[in-house]
Specification:
The chain has about 350 residues and is α/β, with parallel strands linked by helices. The chain has helices spanning about 15-25, 60-70, 85-105, 145-160, 180-190, 220-230, 250-255, 265-275, 285-295, 300-305, 315-325; strands spanning about 5-10, 30-40, 50-55, 75, 110-115, 130, 165-175, 175, 205-210, 215-220, 235-240, 260, 295. The radius of gyration is 19 Å and the shape is globular.
Amino acid sequence: MSSGTGMKVVVTGATGNVGTSVVRLLSKDPEVASVLGLARRIPDWSPPKTDWAAVDLASERSGLVERFTDADAVIHLAWAFQPTHDPAATWRTNVLGSMRVFEAVAEADVPVLVHASSVGAYSPGPEDGAVDESWPTHGWPDAAYCREKAYLERALDTFERDRPEIRVVRMRPAFLFQRESASEQRRIFGGWFLPGPLARPELLPFLPDIPGLRVQALHTDDAANAYRLALRSGVRGAFNLAADSPVDTRLLGEMFDARPVRLPRGAARSAIAAAWGLHLLPASPHLFDAVLRLPLMDCTRARTELGWRPEHTAPEVLEEFLLGFRQGAGAPTEPLRGRKVG
């Protein structure tokens, strides 16, 4: 760890989409003395006040206690989206790995744990209106991502009951984007060979309009600021995080100057299921089912108790991401490495 006065913060998943934004912001914060980034592979990136350690959460526990000793806070971001065809593998990393983090936080007597939950942890929501943090978090059971996020919500319920002296904060962000994550997210959800140049207005005269498909978005820098504010305050519990306006076909149609064309849910799901079954598409039809049922989130608590305000609107987030998508943008970390296709 670096020397100096201020907080010592450990960040798991520090080289990923949100992790890079969190590390970058904390490294500039005068109230943070040092940041220890944990990742499976050490990056070619050295922000101020930041050290790195190679850790695989799928198999390592004893090393975590040593890494967490004397830390003022642990921000747990590590997550594996793939392989969707092997849910046991993602369970080992995401659920069992997270349990190792929670246990190590308790054993090392870390006073603050900030955990990355998700809108995906929520049970299906109402068609009209947004839900606050009291909405049930049982996820959509067929989708591994939602199932794992929901399970960890229950694990944290037990953790908080047994270790009330540890301040636990659960962040539940919407879909997270930045320019530098474009190549990674194309690989995770669209596949290695999906051409980035397809995301150009002149090549998309029509957009599929799937009934019920609307989501919220958030820039990773805005999410990182919420994590930073949670460290500085004495808050506990869950916080919804999203930009103001939801993303739907109307908004995308305006961005691409494209005409919406109604596509039934069943037809869209059948196409996704076929492509996923043939290993042509990494995103599973079960995740598609879950996305159609996600509630919109009310972020009042984050605004009032954290003083948090997103600086990027949903259209700005998507415009930046799509530019990165077309350019094959990336960052000097293994998860975010850039790759242009097409």
